[in-house]
């Protein structure tokens, strides 16, 4: 079973090949979602700051509920929310994508060896952020609430949602394990 460990000054993660494949799949789905679409509208040629920083004049609030949860509005006022999003969303997206790409790279090395094993010297903070984003994405899709574990236990074994709930709870266990190690 998967687990994080502190090794010297660093951290490692022990995974089976199946667990590594599951994580790669989730990471790639979230990377696709974070990079899909043109979320920039256009550059405002009349705004000298936007010209200097090559900033979009507006960024659309995401329609996808997962993206809205990962990239929430900072203000209730639409104009203030749009302004805030304009200055922060590209960096937040980029940071999330960078974390996920690093996770995928480390997982792919493990899979390319065609066996389970240990990812050594991983950046625990990046993994913690990436696991959190994966859990948030799944929680939105599964509509997780305080009764979700009971619902999961009542699902029949042939229900297609059961393995997805199991992965969500496994990610929670991984995240808790990493926090305990930290």
List the helices and strands and how they pair.
Blueprint: E1 3-7, E2 10-15, H1 17-35, H2 48-53, H3 65-70, H4 78-112, E3 117-122, H5 124-142, H6 148-154, H7 161-181
Antiparallel strand pairs: 1-2, 2-3
Helix pairs in contact: 1-4, 4-5, 5-7
Output the keywords.
182 residues; mainly alpha; 3-stranded antiparallel β-sheet; 7 helices; globular
Report low-confidence residues grouped into runs of 5 or more.
37-45
* Overall spatial form: globular
* Class from secondary-structure proportions: mainly alpha
Mean pLDDT: 87
**Order of SSEs:** EEHHHHEHHH
As a whole number of angstroms, the C-alpha radius of gyration is: 19 Å
Proportion in β-strands: 5-15%
**Helix content range:** 55-70%
State the distance separating the first and last CA atoms. 19 Å
